[in-house]
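[Help] Beginner question about ligand-bound structures

Sorry if this is basic. My supervisor gave me a protein sequence and a SMILES string for zinc ion and asked me to "get the holo structure". I don't really know what that means in practice or what format the answer should be in. Inputs are pasted below exactly as I got them.
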Amino acid sequence: MSATDQPDLARDDVADAAAVTAAPPEVRERHREVSEQVEDARWRYYVLDTPTLSDADFDTRLRELEALEDDYPELRTPDSPTQKVGGAVSTEFTAVDHLQRMESLDNAFSYDELEGWYARLAREGLETPDLLCELKVDGLAINLLYERGRLVRGLTRGDGRTGEDVTPNVKTIDSVPHRLTGTDEFPVPELLEVRGEVFLPVEAFERLNVTMTEAGRPAFANPRNAAAGSLRQKDPRVTASRDLGMVCHGIGERRGFEPKAQSHAYEALATWGLPTSDQVRVVGTLTEVEAYIENAGEHRHSIVPYEIDGVVVKVDDVSLQRRMGSTSRAPRWAIAFKYPPEEVNARLLAIEVQVGRTGRVSPFGRMEPTRVAGSTVEKATLHNAHEVRRKDVRPGDTVILRKAGDVIPEIVGPVLALRPEGLAEWVMPTECPACGTTLAQQKEGDRDLRCLNHEACPAQVRERVFHVAGRGAFDIEGLGYEAASALLASGAITNEGDVFDLDEARLLTTPLFTRAPKKGEEGTHVSPDGSRALTANGQKLLANLDKATGAALWRVLVALSIRHVGPTAARALAQEFGSWQAIAAATEEELAATEGVGPTIAAAVVEWREVPWHQEIVAKWSGHLPLADERDESVPRTLEGLTIVATGSLQGYTRDSVKEAIITRGGKAAGSVSKKTDYVVVGENAGSKAEKAEQLGVPVLDEEQFTRLLEQGPAGLS
Ligand SMILES: NC(=O)c1ccc[n+]([C@@H]2O[C@H](COP(=O)([O-])OP(=O)(O)OC[C@H]3O[C@@H](n4cnc5c(N)ncnc54)[C@H](O)[C@@H]3O)[C@@H](O)[C@H]2O)c1
Ligand SMILES: [Zn+2]
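Answer (accepted):
No worries, everyone starts somewhere. Holo just means with the ligand present. The predicted complex, written as structure tokens, is below.
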């Protein structure tokens, strides 16, 4: 809803210009250079749909121009990129003028900048105005023209004055009504420009890319590019096949409709059948705005099925919007708060390989340290050689690096337009980088290559020692990656079998755990020759190791690094057999018959236990740990034959202790709800499992009922 359409190149600035010094030649040159880069980037982004700059790099350049122009206002000419709505009209489409200009938005990259914008509203006399918060949809802007309720035209934003006519394409979008339906309260207006964003939902984007790659065509880098590429098609049938969606975020020219507030306009649009967002909120304070931003940021990937890149905050009242007016490119009554980018360009310096705990050798990209989604990334996985080939990434490429939420950083693909000529393809090494063994498949048909020197390959040994201490295994604090490496390097241990043999004397040989003794210090923590003393961390590690010797059998099984044996399979085995001795003596059939185990795991266990150096590890551990669960006869077997799923957080239990409680009473702790589930225990913030239980008619218990079930069995519930 732009109000004034006059570009009002700030008059103050022009007046000031006379007073300040003229821009020196090198500043002019820089301004010209960056302006060209920005114009070029816009062309590639808006017209070609294949950007070569990341959004963050683009924003940085635009900000640089703004800063130069702040210092030297004479550079802020009407055709500077900072003064224009970025975009152009491709010759592929008919150019048509918008009835009312389409604007861009000013950005805030921090709360400081947001507060600056708010302070400006106050200076203009807007004391605590109602603020409308909505999601910033990462798609492309569209302008729909309705005449007497009929959709007559759809235009892209173009340069803000003139857009590209994509009417037949827009008409293929399901959520775009061809006709509006009025009510008594909201009769259909004579004429209306509706502004919104066309997007491709993330799932549709992923499906589309699968189809594209299967057809041997380049994949789209992200949903925005895919949406733009899909809408701006010569053949509308292609657009129709792409599952595009649309959401409204404003209105332009109108006749026979004058809303008092942005939120009222949305109400009318929704009534007429136009797609509006259910995420719009009107709030009264900046604190509430920030809470909205926090919340949407935290749930960025689940709040809506499409990508968002920020939050847009707008003054809700239309007369106040008019009062604030617009600059040459954006309204002053709105601001886009942008989240840290999740996709940036990065220089791929090299592709290296790493050796995992089971010998799997996987390539990863080493990049110039790059900021993405709030952290600095230098490494990103490439999974396997096949993946490197499929994505065609090469050392020396500029790549698109993506880090979304908690997901590990990923290389999306190369920016082909920036590839230096003659860049060689990467070749998977044939030898283990850690021990030089020739890489091979473990089994025929494996996609992965492995170093089969499992016993002695230093990389695998280190990963296994680290794993022994992991949360799913013995959970030993103080034995992290650094400690594992240091203990192996000093010879204090040779592999995971030695972990429980660690004592003061051995730790004192490892520099990481020693310090210079204090004056006159002697006693147990000091080496016999008095030269080194054990650090506090070293002492803690010994205490934690001691504690770990009381660990349950399933943790021991996980720690052994048997293929396919994770916490779930380990619990099942421990429950059924009770001791390592029993597992070692069981036949493959007996193992496979165990509920939750099956033939693959059984075969892996049998294969593992036959290897002599594996047996040595077990023998060494057995000197320190029982390798068996004490069956506590005092615990009644109240849950024999029952399958129970616990979901959400319970007051008196951790995730592990719930399972423990169920299993020790003879029950089965399952992870997902099915018809076979007897009870679902629901704690706070329980998700879809609780719903599933309702659907299937499985009895749902709260924590108190669960406690009674534990004590007395099903009889306790009646
Ligand atoms: N990578 C590149 O080379 C390149 C080039 C040009 C632009 N860009 C990207 O585009 C941005 C600039 O584009 P811009 O001028 O469209 O500005 P913008 O994307 O920062 O904001 C303006 C646009 O946001 C859209 N929008 C989404 N949700 C909205 C909502 N709820 N309310 C109002 N508008 C909403 C509208 O289409 C509006 O035109 C850059 O910051 C960059 O991210 C990238
Ligand atoms: Zn190796």
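A couple of things worth pointing out: Residues 41-42, 44-45, 51, 53-55, 58-59, 86, 104-105, 107, 134, 136-137, 141, 157, 197, 249-250, 312, 336 surround nicotinamide-adenine-dinucleotide (ligand 1) (CB under 6 Å). The first helix runs from residue 11 to 19. Feel free to follow up in the thread.
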